[in-house]
């Protein structure tokens, strides 16, 4: 049996297992069959939860910078942003929305009033530190506030029809918006790490697609769409820009600040050096919780599979549930199928991930090099 170079680069299984845990389980399963292979773990992220952990694991000298922010429901949240070393003493700040204004921070969903103020406060903390560049991971949002909360923390001033300041989460009340007080983007720029290409408005926009995931019923989706549309009319950014609808419109708000949009998985992968690792591999294994039609829109599995194709390596997929074509993969394993159902797979995901990797390893042709 020939020894193989294997790169394991999965995303997290959202809310079930971190990318680090998933990568470890895949490695364990693979090694139980092929213990002589050279296996390299590269846990990935696409701008959602786990992005900070991926950078922290991969970048020597990365440092957690604690910060207390206002959570999406107004309660304080102990969070952190990540300082990456760079030329001079300033470095790059990585700020994650999921840990400051994310859905998992809510005890109960608040589709109309949750906000991104805390995310903006964490960005401001990184600016106060003097970072030269920002990477802004915006997956895992709890709100549909168009990024107004974050802009407010960065110096924007929103008022209602009576001239009173609009409270965080009060997008429906906005009448005027003054962006002249916004803090400047750092000299090296601010890059939005985004895993979707949705516009701000319309049937594939922030309210229609993502509002229900945050607890909005059909009437509330209509109200959110109207509020976001009114907000868009106050900002000189095209709401049809791909990614503007990401994170409840936070992508749109950050574009208004002066940040630029980037495909999350590709940006993270470039920073982590995944392409270089894959270039020398025979086998690449990736994965995520649900592999569906959106997975080709900048998410980790499609990005990693593309790198594998360029390198001439075989790409394999491990996913909790597979709902889309897997033609670009040499093989795939679904935890739902292995466990006999979604509930069983979720009860012990690492067990089934390990088994999936074991099955992929056992299926390797003897002459693969």
The count of helical stretches stands at 14
Please tell me what the overall shape is. globular
Structural class: alpha/beta
Reported by name, the CATH topology of the largest domain is Glycerate kinase, domain 2
Number of domains: 2
Largest beta-sheet characterization: 6 strands, mixed
Helix content: 25-40%
Give the topology:
Elements lengths: L4 E4 L10 H13 L6 E4 L9 H8 L4 E8 L5 E9 L7 E5 L1 H4 L15 H13 L3 E5 L10 H6 L3 E3 L16 E3 L11 E5 L11 H5 L7 H15 L13 H12 L2 E4 H9 L1 H6 L3 E9 L8 H12 L2 E9 L8 E4 H5 L2 H6 L1 H14 L7
Parallel strand pairs: 1-2, 1-11, 5-6, 6-9, 9-10, 11-12, 12-13
Antiparallel strand pairs: 3-4, 4-5, 7-8
Helix pairs in contact: 1-14
Keywords: Kinase, Transferase
InterPro entries: Glyc_kinase_flavodox-like_fold, Glycerate_kinase, Glycerate_kinase_RE-like, Glycerate_kinase_sf
Pfam families: Gly_kinase
What would the keywords be for this entry?
369 residues; alpha/beta; Rossmann fold; Glycerate kinase, domain 2; 2 domains; 6-stranded mixed β-sheet; 5-stranded parallel β-sheet; 14 helices; 35% helix; 20% strand
Structure description:
With 369 residues, the chain is an alpha/beta fold. The chain has two domains: 5-42 and 273-362, Rossmann fold (3-Layer(aba) Sandwich), CATH 3.40.50.10350; 51-265, Alpha-Beta Complex (Glycerate kinase, domain 2). It is 35% helix and 20% strand. It has 14 helices and 13 strands. It has helices spanning 19-31, 51-58, 98-101, 117-129, 148-153, 206-210, 218-232, 246-257, 264-272, 274-279, 300-311, 335-339, 342-347, 349-362, and strands at 5-8, 38-41, 63-70, 76-84, 92-96, 133-137, 157-159, 176-178, 190-194, 260-263, 283-291, 314-322, 331-334. A six-stranded mixed β-sheet has the order 3-4-5-6-9-10, sandwiched between helices. It has a five-stranded parallel β-sheet with strand order 2-1-11-12-13. The protein has a two-stranded antiparallel sheet with strand order 7-8. Helix 1 packs across helix 14 (349-362). The chain is globular, with a radius of gyration of 21 Å.
């Amino acid at each position: 049996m020939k020894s193989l170079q294997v790169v394991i680069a999965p995303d997290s299984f959202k809310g079930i297992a971190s990318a680090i845990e998933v990568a470890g389980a895949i490695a364990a399963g693979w090694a139980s069959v092929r213990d002589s292979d050279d296996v390299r773990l590269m846990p990935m992220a696409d701008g959602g939860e786990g992005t900070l952990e991926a950078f922290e694991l991969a970048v020597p000298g990365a440092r957690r910078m604690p910060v207390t922010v206002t959570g999406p429901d107004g309660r304080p949240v102990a969070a952190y942003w990540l300082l990456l070393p760079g030329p001079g003493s300033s470095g790059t700040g990585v700020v994650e929305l999921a840990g400051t204004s994310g859905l998992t921070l809510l005890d109960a969903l608040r589709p109309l009033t949750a906000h991104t103020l805390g995310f903006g406060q964490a960005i401001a903390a990184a600016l106060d530190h003097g970072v030269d560049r920002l990477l802004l991971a915006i997956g895992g949002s709890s709100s549909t506030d168009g990024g107004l909360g974050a802009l407010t923390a960065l110096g924007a001033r929103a008022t209602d029809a009576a001239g009173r300041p609009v409270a965080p989460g009060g997008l429906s009340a906005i009448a005027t918006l003054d962006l002249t007080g916004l803090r400047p983007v750092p000299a090296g720029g601010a890059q939005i790490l985004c895993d979707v290409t949705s516009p701000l408005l319309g049937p594939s926009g922030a309210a229609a697609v993502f509002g229900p995931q945050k607890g909005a019923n059909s009437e509330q989706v209509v109200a959110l769409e109207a509020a976001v549309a009114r907000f868009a009319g106050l900002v000189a950014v095209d709401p049809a820009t791909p990614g503007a609808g990401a994170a409840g419109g936070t992508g749109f708000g950050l574009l208004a600040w002066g940040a630029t949009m980037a495909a999350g998985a590709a940006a993270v992968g470039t920073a982590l050096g995944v392409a270089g690792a894959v270039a020398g591999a025979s086998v690449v294994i990736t994965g995520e919780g649900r592999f569906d039609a959106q997975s080709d829109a900048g998410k980790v599995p499609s990005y990693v599979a593309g790198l594998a194709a360029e390198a001439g390596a075989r790409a394999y997929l491990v996913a909790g549930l597979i709902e889309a074509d897997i033609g670009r993969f040499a093989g795939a394993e679904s935890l739902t199928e292995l466990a006999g159902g979604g509930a069983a797979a979720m009860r012990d995901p690492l067990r089934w991930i390990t088994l999936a990797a074991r099955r992929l390893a056992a299926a390797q042709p003897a002459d693969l090099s």
